[in-house]
Each structure stands twice: as structure tokens, then as C-alpha cells.
Amino acid sequence: MNIKRFSFRKSVVSTSIIILSLILIVFIHNTYTQKRDVNNTVKNKLNTLLSVLHYINEDYFETVELDKLMDGAIRGVMDELDPHSVYIPAEELEEIDEQFKGEFQGIGIEFDVLNGNLTVIAPVADSPSERAGLLSGDQIIKINGEDAFGITKEGVFKALRGKKGTKVIVTIKRTGTAELFDVTIVRDNIPLYSVRTAIMIDSQTGYIWLTRFSETSLDEVRSAMSELSQKGMQRLILDLRNNSGGLLNQAAEITNLFIAKSDTIVYTRGKRKELEQVFIADPKKGSDEFSLVVLVNRGSASASEIVAGAVQDLDRGIIVGETTFGKGLVQRQIALNDGSAIRITIAQYYTPSGRLIQREYELGHDYDYYSEIFIENREVVVDSLKKLRPKHFTRNGRIVYGGGGITPDVLSAWESGISAETQSIITDPNRPIFNWASKYSQSIKNDFVSFEQFNISWVLSDELYKEFLAFLISEKIKFDRSAITKDSNFIKTRIKAQVAASLWGRDEYFKIILPTDNQFIVAINSFKETVELKKY
Q1: Short-list 168, 169, 161, 152, CA closest to 117
Q2: Could you tell me which residue, 9 or 481, shows the higher pLDDT?
Q3: CB neighbours (10 Å) of residue 340?
Q4: 326 vs 162: CA distance, rounded Å
Q5: Which of these, 190, 239, 237, 238, lies nearest to 216 by C-alpha position?
Q6: How far is residue 4 CA from its own chain's centroid?
Q7: 284 is catalytic
Q8: How far apart are CA 482 and CA 489, in angstroms?
Q9: Are 251 and 306 in contact (CB under 8 A)?
Q10: Strand partners, 332
Q11: CB within 10 Å: which end of the chain, N or C, has fewer?
């Protein structure tokens, strides 16, 4: 037996266990519904698969990588299930697990590679990079003495991530500092925060932007609410826009923070009784002493819909924005023996009123399923059809609709309000607003004693605006001056927000940006709707 054939047979044997497990999962349904002989079916199909692999290995005109071939076969199996049941190769699993755990090990920077230069966008709060004094706008010229110019993002992860306690030396170029200097950073656990920002909008309105549901999310939200309460919060906007979900238990626990009665938050139904769950609110954990508005959009899915659905069904608050994604399927991740994993749907979840949130889908048409949420005028279409969907009733008797996402109480489609030309400047990969504002901020860093003073008194003058446009030209960023004229105030606000972020941090950035967000404005004006809920 030659080496090639031995390697092939060994690979087939090792992967056969994986294939066998997957096919058993796919065909187990037939045991309960069609009374088919699962063992014979699996045996026949597995023998066919092994024959196919044998002929490919022996006769295919090019050498094939069996690992990739087997990954494709497994994905083919998963494609016959719902859109959210997936196969996760071993090399992708570690990064996904980090996101759910809410931390990884490294130096902790938000970065980008701008014109070939590794640039610090912001140090992560309470990270080694922040403790070492790295600032927004710093350029990392060398890593452990190696030139970092032209480094890829993958190269950055490889060079800067590492085990807790290990050291890395970065050479920094900083605006306003003539000489390069070295900074030694000791790697540590880096939290991946779920709460992007938690701020007071005014003397009574708090705002929390929750971006995911990981293992640390409950603690983060609870801490944010405590801090805002101490600052006088009497009403709260919880922003779940583009939050695609995460851990079910975290969604239930976070919802409980708003519920002060013993009531159902969410429940699941599956094939097997032991996979079914009911989450009941503990009144001791919740509070209803403040008004609540939840912001959602078409990117709010899964765990986000659990929160929004419970708040709406229990008449705890008002939902504002766009109809949510419509993912009402619960997945369980199962580790496989080669370091990969599968994530299969084990149940469906329902809101307190009995609404199934899952949108309809057609097997094998995943592209249509995902692209459907991006159709033009989606909110108008969905809203016009909602009366055809199943009716349910909230605790106070309001009508809500099931069968596909959470329909907001107050509909507000996203409106950018700017031209495509302006949008291209805002989203330019070279981040011209960040670069200009970071450099300019150093010239005024001693002019203000606080952000509040800056926010009230500083505006971007027309002269400085012209300097920014000249900077765009110097950076070879093409734009039509006449096309962006009507958006000059919008651009000025973005620049002001970035200057504030450079001097005080990301929270101050959002304090300036949010008042330009049309959905946020609708949310602020919707607190009057919460008064009607309290009448009950």
C-alpha cells in the first residue's frame, strides 16, 4: 500500500465518525415520523459516500485536499436543515467561542491599517494598551523590532495576541511628538464588551447600546443601569439595533432586569421534552421604576427579539424602529472529535403571548432567506401584511402579530439623510474624518476643562471645514464639492464627535452623534407612549 492510499484510508476512517454522527442527526427525524430503518439508511448512504471519496482519490485528474472535501460534504448535510444549523470548522471555532465567552488574550486595541500604517482607533477600556498609555491616532511602526508597515489585519492578530503575562514591544509614532518611542505591553485577558456605550442623554434619559449577548452581558447591563440610576435616570432607551443575538439565558436574565412581576419571559418547544424550557421572571431581580423604550431594526435577531418580544407582550415598554429579523430558532453547539463543531436547531422560542418569532424559510434557499431583510421599502411591505399574520394579545389587551419578527409599536425606518457622496467620505476605508480630527484634537487639548464645556462652546468653523476638504484632496480622496454642500452640517457634526472621542473617549462621541439619528429621535419622542401603558 503506498503512502497516498494509506493517508486516504486513514482520513476516511477518522472522518467517517463525524459523517456518521451528522447523518444520524439528519435522519433521526425519520425515526419518529416515517418509521424508516435509520441504521440501514445510514449504512447505505455512508457506503456510497466512501465509494465517492475512493474514486475521487484514485481517479480525479488533480490532487485534492481531503480535509476541504470532507468539510464540503458536512456543509452539504447541514444545508439540508434550517438556515441557522451550521458546521463550524476547527480553525473558526476558537474565534467564535471567544465571542461568546466575552474575552480573549492580547493587548486590547481597536485598530485599522490606514495607508499601510497600523493605526490605533481606540484602546479597549481597562486593557493593557490603555494602561500603557496608547492613544487614539497612535501609529504602531514596529512590533518587537519588526517593521509593521503594510501589515495585514491577520498579521496584526498574530503579532499582538498572545498568552496572558507575555510581553510585546511596540514602537509608536504620535502626533505632536517628534521622536518615535517604544512601549512595552504585558498581554492580559481582554474583555469583548457587549455594552458599547452607556450614557445620560439629558438629566433624566439614559441610553444603553447592547451589541451582543455573551457570557458577560448581564453583568455589563446591570452595571450600566446602576451607574445611570445614580446619575438620575428616570427613563431608558435600550438600543438593540443590529444586535444579532447570542446566549438565550443572557437574553432572559437581561429581560428580567426590567420585569418586576413573576411572569413568563420566553419559552421554547422542541421535539424532545427535555429540550423545552420556560424562563420566569424573578420579581426580586427586576425593576419597573423607570420608563423603557427598546430600539430595534431588521438586524435585531434571536436574543434581541426575546427581549423586545417580552417587553412588548408584558406591556413593560414601547418598541421603536423596524420589524426585526425573525429568528425564533434555538441552536445547540455540539463539539466533534476533530476540533470542529456543529450548531443544530433543537427548539423554537415563543414570546409570553405565544408568538413564534421565526420567519418562514425554504430549505436550501438560504440566500433568499437572508437577503429578504434588505428589500427596498421592507417596513412598508411588512407593515401592510401584518394583519394577515397570527394575532396575539399583550397583558393589557393590545394586539401584536406573530409569524415573523417583532413588529414595533412605533414604526421608524432608518433614514441616513445624506447623499451617496457624503456617505462615501464617512465610510472611506482610509478614515479621513478620524485622521484629520485626531491630529487637530492635539492642538486644542488644553483649551477645555471638560467635555461639557467643549460640547457647548466649540463648533467647526467654515475655515476649519475648508481645511478638512483640503485634507481630503491631499489624501487623494475624490469627492464632488457641490454634492456634499447640503451635508456640511452633518460632516461638521461627525468631525466634532471624532474630536471629542480623541480627547475624552467613545461615550462622548455618541453624545454628539445620537441627536442626528432619526430613529433615536423617534425613540425619545415615544416616551409619551409609555405613559399610556402605565395607566393599566
Answers
A1: 152
A2: 481
A3: 19
A4: 38
A5: 190
A6: 44
A7: no
A8: 14
A9: yes
A10: 344
A11: N
10 Å Cβ neighbour count for 100?
16
CB 213 within 8 A of CB 254: yes
> Looking at 327, 340, 441, 517, which residue is catalytic?
327
What whole-number distance in Å separates Cα of residue 16 and Cα of residue 514?
54
Q: Determine whether 327 is an active site residue.
A: yes
| Residues 6 or more apart in contact with residue 100 via CB below 8 angstroms | 214, 215, 246, 247
Say what the alpha-carbon torsion angle 390, 332, 325, 529 is, to the nearest 10 degrees. 70
Tell me if 509 sits within 8 A of 498, measured CB to CB: yes
Would you call 138 a catalytic residue per the annotation? no
The three cell numbers of residue 508 are: 462622548
The enclosing H or E element of 249 equals helix 248-256
State pLDDT tens for residues 380-425. 777 777 777 889 999 999 999 888 899 999 999 988 888 889 988 9
CB 423 within 8 A of CB 436: no
**Residues forming beta bridges with residue 172, ordered by sequence position:** 140, 181
**How much is the pLDDT for 26?**
55
Q: What is the pLDDT of residues 36-92, one digit of tens each?
A: 567 777 788 788 888 888 888 888 888 888 778 888 888 888 888 888 888 888 877
CA proximity to 327, closest of 346, 344, 349: 349
The pTM of the full predicted model, rounded to 2 decimals, is 0.80
Query: Which is the catalytic residue, given 313, 409, 487, 517?
Result: 313
Mean pLDDT of the chain: 86
Determine the 3-state secondary structure of 146 from DSSP: strand
Catalytic residue among 214, 217, 291, 302: 302
Q: How far apart are CA 164 and CA 176, in angstroms?
A: 32
CB 140 within 8 A of CB 172: yes
Helices 66-79 and 3-33, axial angle in degrees (round to 10): 10
3-state secondary structure of 196: strand
